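[Discussion] Sanity-checking designs against the backbone

I'm trying to build intuition for which residues belong where. Below is a structure token string of 262 positions. I'd appreciate it if someone posts a full sequence so I can compare it with mine line by line.
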């Protein structure tokens, strides 16, 4: 059955099992999850609960062991060639460690131009102009466009990584702990930037974070994972104010012990 039009990406009963010499790990175990157009879905849960694996499955970076991932109604496993490339460019990711995710021997502009080059978008001149525009948009002065990633601070590096993620005008932006490696003051700036961009560009976001205060601020809906399973999901307000599942309550009380107090 086709997805309703407001669902951009849907994981349908998706499981991911990793096998190693130590045995099998069910990193994701029968997850069904939808990201609706225009929303920011927050994904929370303790370390190892399967959040990043869900992100990679939704992005089509890893195939599920079973179940299906549908992007705009198309099963990622059945897409080939041109259709796969076109779909790939519609989803982009921002990672925890910006320096590790940037190409060290490419300038800031070069990093932003690279996805455009790989997808044959425009020519070198137009790509350079677009890279400078995007750097400006994320708050990196185009004057610094020719500097290398190591010459920027962590916060600036993450801005460059965000500019690169925007280079192909994605519909879905997956942010996996995008501020965890940054200083607290810089975290706030990057979050403000993501909020602005989301509104300005009408982005749909999957936002993974350990920081529940951040998720409460950014997400429209939240899904809670524990041991590979989504144990609860709901609107941000409902989930934070009246969590239903014991695990969600534990998670909230562990991080926000004074919630409801002064
Ligand atoms: N490539 C892999 N090979 C083997 N096991 C893996 C692999 N990737 C993830 N896992 C395991 O799957 C489980 C879920 O990992 P995942 O990285 O998705 O968790 P997470 O919720 O993102 O954790 P964190 O908050 O620490 O980033 C963990 O037990 C992890 O060790
Ligand atoms: Mg992770």
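Best answer:
Here's mine. Compare freely.
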């Amino acid at each position: 059955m086709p997805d309703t039009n407001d669902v951009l990406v849907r994981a349908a009963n998706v499981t991911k099992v990793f096998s190693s010499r130590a045995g099998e790990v069910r990193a994701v175990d029968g997850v069904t999850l939808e990201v609706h157009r225009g929303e920011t879905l927050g994904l929370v849960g303790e370390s190892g609960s399967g959040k990043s694996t869900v992100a990679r499955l939704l992005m089509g970076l890893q195939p599920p062991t079973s179940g299906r991932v549908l992007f705009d109604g198309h099963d990622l496993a059945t897409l080939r060639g041109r259709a796969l490339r076109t779909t790939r460019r519609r989803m982009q990711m921002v990672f925890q460690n910006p320096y590790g995710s940037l190409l060290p021997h490419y300038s800031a502009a070069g990093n932003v131009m690279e996805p455009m080059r790989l997808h044959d978008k425009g020519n070198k001149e137009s790509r350079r102009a677009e890279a400078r525009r995007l750097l400006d948009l994320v708050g990196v002065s185009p004057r610094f466009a020719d500097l290398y990633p190591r010459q920027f601070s962590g916060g600036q590096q993450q801005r460059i990584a965000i500019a690169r993620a925007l280079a192909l005008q994605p519909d879905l932006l997956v942010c996996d702990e995008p501020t965890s490696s940054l200083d607290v003051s810089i975290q706030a700036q990057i979050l403000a930037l993501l909020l602005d961009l989301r509104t300005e560009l009408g982005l749909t976001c999957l936002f993974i974070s350990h920081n529940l205060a951040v998720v409460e601020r950014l997400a429209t809906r939240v899904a809670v994972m524990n041991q590979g399973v989504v144990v609860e999901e709901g609107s941000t307000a409902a989930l934070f104010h009246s969590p239903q599942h014991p695990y969600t309550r534990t998670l909230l009380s562990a991080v926000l012990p004074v919630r409801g107090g002064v």
